[in-house]
């Protein structure tokens, strides 16, 4: 399997090069040259396997240089019982005959980022060996919340890696901050940046391009890399759970072999729903992909009009991990739909220059055959949380609620009652305030006490990693000005 940049078809890379590099040097995303098809009987065979074995089987199709033994060890470590609170890893919860919820938040940080960030460190460290890179990789992350904690947990104590996370001092929730500043592990560092997420992000980008720092660190045996969702090593593990969900439905008799399903995905950077598209390309009978957005509805408009336009108001919503106006992974979908790197390059140049591009009618036609886009605001999000709880006795977080709203809208508009897998991306306990509000609580307890309040109201236990935050010592109190992040890196890498 060879990889190319979405903006250049000539240069070819191996999987380990793609994973080590993260981003192509032309600014494009490293992407498989083609998507392998599953053999005819694969889904039947996979249906009786554990999640870990399904992961090995699917990932192997894209990772020729990795042995089955290697991948088996990675999957055991990434998705084992010390990491995930259910042996199913990514269980499917059925609400009614045609509505199934794929729960992706049973990992150590209670959000779906764990599905990929538990695997990425293994893929990356093995890729370093295969590409004969012997320095220690230093992962720099700017985070608005979930990615930072996910990356810290994934890379904690992984040999030959260091991880440094910068979060905006006043830009993350109390639970998210506690999750990060109490992080355990010998190779981790966390610092608050005075400013907002953009300040932290810009600062990290500046560190990446600081040649003097790069040379200084090279002398000490380090080089920089990134763990954000444009790395192929983050998209690949996400394909697995779509195949797995289909297999679970087959195994449990909810669908017949060959029967089609739809999927509905709460979307931000377009990584998660892109993985569903790739699962479909591999041969999983997925008919429609329903793309759910919050009030930041740039993708809804794109799917409906073929025009991507980020020149619009940015909203802070109660589903913050989807507050995004540039969905980076869309570039990979564009390559698949156009099969033309020059066309993709043109769109991306327009996006950089004007914040806008319009795809050709041919691409728009292909897009609209598969994708449906819907959005909803915070009021509707809360209403859906209440409705799903009352009707199905099932508690969902605000991101998942946006997806349920999209599914309702889709079914009303199309009258298509194909069985649908709705992707659930975070534990409701990660967003206690919004969820308690949706259930009608009049006052909401302070800080971590809100976990107990939600637990008492619903009879559900708070996930252990969140409940356990109370007993954790605070380890990281450093706050830096955005112009002094380089000092923080130096102090953390001595
Ligand atoms: C990151 C995230 C999303 C968005 O996923 P993308 O892959 O960026 O589309 C949705 N929900 C939660 C809880 C997330 O953390």
Q: Low-confidence stretches at least 5 residues in length (pLDDT < 50)?
A: none
User: Helix proportion of residues, in percent?
Assistant: 40-55%
Mean pLDDT metric: 94
Under CATH at level 1, the class of one domain stands as: Alpha Beta
Gross morphology: globular
Q: Count the beta strands.
A: 16
The radius of gyration over CA amounts to: 21 Å
Give the strand line-up of the largest sheet: 4-5-15-10-11-14
Question: Which structural class should the secondary elements be placed in?
Answer: alpha/beta
In the CATH scheme, what's the topology name of one domain? Rossmann fold
Distance between the termini: 39 Å
Classify the beta-strand content into a percent band: 15-25%
Oligomeric status: single chain
Task: Name the hetero compounds present.
Answer: pyridoxal-5'-phosphate
Tell me about the largest β-sheet: 6 strands, mixed
Descriptive terms for the model:
single chain, 494 residues, alpha/beta, Rossmann fold, six-stranded mixed beta sheet, five-stranded parallel beta sheet, 22 helices, binds pyridoxal-5'-phosphate
